[in-house]
Amino acid sequence: MGEITIQTWSELFDRLYDESWRPEIKRFRSPYVFRGLSDSAYSLVSSLVRLDGNFTQMEPHLLRNFRKYAHRNIVERDTTWHWLSLAQHHGLPTRLMDWTVSPLVAAHFATASLDKFDRDGVIWMVNSRKVHRMLPPRLKTELDHEGADYFTVEMLARAVPNLADLDALSPPCFVAFFEPPSIDDRIANQYALFSVMPNPTSCLDQWLADHPDLWRKIIVPAGLKWEIRDKLDQANITERVLFPGLDGLSRWQKRYYTPKV
Question: CB neighbours of 248 closer than 8 A, spacing ≥ 6?
């Protein structure tokens, strides 16, 4: 269906929950994962790619030094995927990208930056079930064996213990979505997922352009952001909940009490 510009809160809600009904289990379980961005012009590129320069050579050095200087007891298990999850969570440039299972959490991130209220926001929806049908056999077998919609870090560690093993499965290129360990309440409350692709230069924008049946791009007009933001606040989808602690509380109050101009 490609790019869709919504006109009302109700339309946004309907679009975000489209295709959720699963007749085989008679429950509503959306196949989509979501990523909200405050500016529709932003690309789906990893923080590692945004480093620019010789970022491909920097990737192993970044992770090695993160592991070296972080406290050893800070991860549950000493695997590449546990460390990558922790590094991404704390802002280290990695090839991972943040997603969420919650459409309303994605809507929060599309409307949380008041300095971007003059620009259209965007919520990306990617059908993870269809994406995972395109996985290489080693990964698909692991996922099917568990009967899971997403990988865990333990599953990835069994199938591809390190990034070199992941990269060796390509070409063709692919995307895998995995749940990070519950490092803290922020991960849990945001219903967080990460995506990963083989090869640090891979660009999800380009990959999705070659597979238009896998995604939708919901444009949130700038003129609608205030209404969506206020209704999300009333639904308790706020920084106070998504970033537990005094920092999140302060961010929520600062935004909430900023007057509309």
Answer: 186, 239, 240, 241, 242
DSSP state letters, 59-95: HHHHHHHHHHHS-GGGSSS-SHHHHHHHHHHTT---S
Strand partners, 124: 35, 217
Check: CB of residue 182 under 8 Å from CB of residue 85.
no
Tokens of 21: 């009904």
The encoded tokens of residue 2 equal 């490609």
Distances in Å between the Cα of 246 and the Cα atoms of 183, 185, 186, 241, 251 are 18, 13, 13, 11, 9
Integer Cα distance of 76 and 183 in angstroms: 9
Collapsing DSSP states into helix, strand and coil, what is residue 31? coil
Report the first-to-last Cα separation within the chain, whole angstroms: 35
Six-digit token string for 15: 């679009």
Question: What predicted TM-score, i.e. pTM, was given to this entire model?
Answer: 0.94
Is 133:113 a contact under the CB 8 Å cutoff? no
- pLDDT tens, position by position, 54-96: 888 999 999 999 999 987 667 778 899 999 999 999 999 999 9
The DSSP bridge partners found for residue 152 are 179
